[in-house]
Amino acid sequence: MAWLYYVPWAPVLFILLLSLSRGGHASAGNINSNRVDTPEDQLWGAFSPANQLRKNTEKLIFFKSGWNSKPFKDTDYAPGDTAHGFQVKTLDGDFVYPPPGGLNISIIVHAFTNKSAFLECMWTSDSSLTDLVDNLPDSAHVVFVSLDDTAEVDVHWMRYQIQRVAKQRKKDILDRLHFSSVPVYSLGNWIPSVLYDWRCEGINCGLNQAVFTSKDWDTPIVAKRLDARYDWLMGHWSRQSYELVDAADGCNVSSEVKGAVAWVSEGDCSFFTKVKNMAESQAVGVVVYASLGRPIQDMTCVGIECYTPLSIPASMVHLLPAVMSSLRSKKQVNVSFQNTPSPNFFFGIDHEGKLAEMGWFLYPTFKFLTWQSEWFDYVKQLYGKLQKPARAITVFNHTVMQGENGTVTTVELPKDFLASDSLELDASLSCPGLKDETCAPWDHTVQLYVCCDGLSQLCNLELGRWITAFHRGIGRWLTDVSPLMPLLNSTKCTFSMKTVPWAKPWVASLNLRFGKSSHSDFEKHSGDLSPYLLKPLYNGGTFDKNYNKKYQPVNFTVPTAVRKVEIYAVITGHGSDDNGCGEFCVTSHHFLINSKFNHSKVFEKAGTAFGCAEAVKEGVVPNEHGTWLYGRGGWCDGLQVTPWRIDITSQLNMNGSNTILYFGLFDGKDPNPARDPGYIIMWS
């Protein structure tokens, strides 16, 4: 339903790192797959992976025992706890937290290890490093540490990588980056406790590994692996053991790989071509090995390649001489896939000095680190807004929302609340536990309804709308809904907040903030005016060929005392037809005033790769455990739905009859999907 509301003339009232893969492919205690000298020294110079591995071979055993032994701690740390002060030695002197200037910065702690292919790719990809150099907010600092015995070498190399890219980009960032040469197990503070306690298994967590076995070997070879981009190849490795078959470079179809995992060299054709050919050859999966001395890469599709669905999994590993030798000798080699838990590689400290999880990095780039830092800035700004004068009325206070009714409560509003002329919703959605692992996994629409007079046509209409995040419980938003104050037409109101009944529980908090328009966004629209009257307009519905047929012009006249008229609409697209509508297709929505003035909103970011990720600064929860990055039809996962407001005063006959008509289009025409039509949720 859309709203047409009026505001009469009224005075304003006061109330209201670890190291690069360095050639070491085997876990400690297993065969080191880098059994031959390589020309890596020429590629990396003093920081050659092979060179450093040779220097530190004896330390691998200690590395393993270090991970199996938790550091001593005297307390547990949870997200939201206050971070204690700490001091670490860095390449540029001591870094002290909290800083002498006070809590005016956020901190990311990143622990690197050469056992992670994911981190190797992050640190060897210039595009990933550029994301850090170009996009790290000015208020953010990063402390880099290493989980490995090669910490001093690691952090020198990491600093070199960033210096190199920063020089190319002409960016001054190094004064906010702090590289500690002390390994994590020797830090002597609470940081190791968080890294060990907040273990996680996911796309960027733990150690993804490929395990190669042969009857001719005494022990298996365990190699770090990086799986292909999550949004390109949807296939997943099972826990079984597969036969491995050499398929050369994979640039041609091969009948020999049927029913097996194809062993394919890097180069000569794209990753897409390799996987497509192996899929057509009926291989069950692909393992691509990097060229000699080359790092593991992020395998993904490019351009139109992405429109070809491929169902088999693929991973990348380093060149493994023993595997190559056995396959070329026609000896059977099998491969299986595993994830070994590890300490966490990232955590944060926000501007308030609170510990924070970092969510999922969906693929290996520092973008995700910068998005979390942007979130810290957003929260700081939000807290600033919440300090402005307002009268806060608690509706829900950490209340479980689940089931058909969600959460419902009746609230007594102060008798003088109408003396205010602005209303903001301060809403948050958290999880049953303190960590993201306790959060509901899927994104769903959350709606807030209010009824203050059971006999009124305004009873149980929507007051606010949000979309849940994928598996993250940090969302908090402030939404100005001042035009809807006439919904509160009594001092006793029942509020219900709910999502789909089958969703797992969320913990909802909601405060109504009554204030004066000078302290809200309402001032931008209405000056010294107050909301006076609401006229319900249109609802949404199934987005098919009949979508617009049900909408007829609404006739109305403007009451005498009114000085301003606005349209207020909340519109979101959902579902997926053959055009991706309404979630991922570009739709347009129109209000036609007096058959002459057309007001349009186009969801132009729907379906774009980073349409929602680019809105973290506006409140999108970052690093969710799902496809949160993509633009949607008028909404984002982990965000409030911002109302669309249109001032139509100058287009009206203030002394006579007026008409308003809504219609929605896809590709400039009435929608006409061939199958599975989507739907539009609209209140206007």
UniProtKB/TrEMBL annotation:
- Give the UniProt keywords, A-Z: Disulfide bond, Signal
List, alphabetically, the InterPro entries matched. Answer: Cu2_ascorb_mOase-like_C, N-glycanase, PA_dom_sf, PA_domain, PHM/PNGase_F_dom_sf, PngaseF_C, PngaseF_N
Q: Native species of this protein?
A: Lepisosteus oculatus
The question of whether Disulfide bond is a record keyword is answered with: yes
Protein's UniProt name: Si:dkey-256h2.1
Please list the GO terms describing molecular function.
oxidoreductase activity, acting on paired donors, with incorporation or reduction of molecular oxygen, reduced ascorbate as one donor, and incorporation of one atom of oxygen
Coiled coil stretches, renumbered: none
Question: What residue stretches are annotated with the Peptide-N-glycosidase F N-terminal domain?
Answer: 392-514
